[in-house]
């Protein structure tokens, strides 16, 4: 049976990984500066991660949410401790799209309204409401287009004010650093005014932290670079270092009721074990400090390369913009230099999303390769 052909694939077959490297079926070593869309947060096959998953699967891999699972509470407490998001409540699911779907559903439950405001170049997932809030008509089917969504330019505070004052908006959803869109960011004034407008208009402010969260921006969450208090925070990707897990943090002003959200696999024992291993490693290895130090070093080296026209992003969610499309450059980096990098909707942008424990030696290796390719 053939696979449904929806992914353009590079001719590389990874079979193992260790730290910041992966190895293909021919034994070739690749430097992974992309982490499978920012999923690999603590490195491939990290000993803490392997140990936690192995011990858990040997004990109990899965049972449904019909029973007590103390690992969920441990994970919630650890997120609270490391993020500083006090008094929020955690709902666990399986992916970023599912996290945003539940965030928007919860916002609609809370407000009794149904329209969503999102922003140009934003990406929030591929499920029904999440994809409708995504600024990409090519992936929105007619069934998704039934959703009531208004997409505004980033930093258009007058537009946000006008839409919220119509009284039918349940949620404003925003990435504080856009991922697939190309690492654009709004201003502090914009984000902080949106937060105020949401609170004044009975609208939930949803922080999509699926890619920019979990220490990647240099703080635990990217919204923490600003003076805002989201009502709902969605998370996934780096949360499980490759194990499927997602979730939303829910402000205590939103009351839970039995049955309003649900999932079969969300918050299962293996997922929680993986999630705890990631958080423990972030804490033990001071990976937020490392993210900031390596970001500063990366940017300082990037500034010395004249072909790089702009450096975008924060922390270890970075983009290098050129005056040409980077598709061929990425192929050369993969096939000639054995390095994984990412692209974006901005075809001139090279995305860098490495594991958070990257070192200077890896950054030097990348830039030496980049200079060779650019010549």
TrEMBL record:
Keywords tagged on the record: Aminotransferase, Pyridoxal phosphate, Transferase
Pfam hit, one: Aminotran_3
Listed name of the protein: Acetylornithine aminotransferase
The keyword Amino-acid biosynthesis is assigned to this record: no
Family stated for the protein in its record: Belongs to the class-III pyridoxal-phosphate-dependent aminotransferase family.
UniProt cofactor(s): pyridoxal 5'-phosphate
Organism for this UniProt entry: Flavivirga aquatica
SUPFAM superfamilies for the chain: PLP-dependent transferases
GO molecular function terms attached to this record: identical protein binding; pyridoxal phosphate binding; transaminase activity
């Amino acid at each position: 049976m053939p696979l449904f052909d929806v992914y353009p694939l590079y001719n590389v077959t990874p079979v193992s990984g260790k730290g910041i490297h992966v190895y293909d079926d021919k034994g070739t070593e690749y430097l992974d500066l992309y982490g499978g869309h920012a999923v690999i947060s603590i490195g491939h096959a990290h000993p803490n991660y392997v140990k936690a998953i192995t011990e858990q699967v040997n004990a109990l891999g899965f049972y449904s949410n019909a029973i007590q699972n103390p690992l969920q509470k441990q994970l919630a407490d650890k997120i609270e401790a490391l993020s500083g998001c006090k008094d929020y409540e955690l709902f666990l699911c399986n992916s970023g799209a599912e996290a945003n779907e539940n965030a928007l559903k919860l916002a609609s439950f809370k407000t009794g309204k149904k329209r969503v405001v999102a922003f140009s170049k934003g990406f929030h997932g591929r499920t029904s409401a999440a994809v409708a809030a995504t600024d990409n008509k090519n992936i929105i089917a007619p069934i998704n287009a039934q959703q009531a969504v208004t997409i505004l330019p980033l930093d258009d505070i007058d537009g946000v004010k006008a839409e919220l004052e119509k009284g039918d908006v349940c949620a404003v959803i925003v990435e504080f650093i856009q991922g697939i869109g190309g690492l654009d960011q709004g201003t502090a004034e914009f984000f902080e005014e949106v937060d105020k407008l949401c609170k004044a208009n009975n609208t939930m402010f949803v922080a999509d932290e699926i890619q920019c969260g979990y220490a990647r921006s240099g703080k635990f969450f990217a919204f923490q670079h600003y003076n805002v208090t989201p009502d709902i925070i969605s998370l996934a990707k780096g949360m499980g270092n490759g194990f499927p897990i997602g979730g939303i943090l829910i402000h205590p002003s939103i009351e839970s009721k039995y049955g309003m959200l649900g999932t079969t696999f969300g918050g299962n024992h293996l997922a929680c074990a993986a999630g705890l291993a990631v958080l423990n490693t972030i804490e033990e290895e001071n990976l937020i400090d490392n993210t900031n130090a390596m970001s500063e070093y990366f940017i300082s080296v990037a500034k010395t390369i004249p072909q790089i026209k702009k450096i975008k992003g924060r922390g270890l969610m970075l983009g290098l913009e050129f005056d040409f499309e980077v598709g061929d450059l990425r192929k050369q980096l993969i096939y000639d230099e054995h390095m994984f990098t990412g692209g974006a909707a901005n075809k001139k942008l090279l995305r860098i999303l490495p594991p958070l424990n990257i070192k200077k030696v890896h950054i030097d290796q990348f830039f030496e390769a980049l200079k060779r390719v650019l010549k």
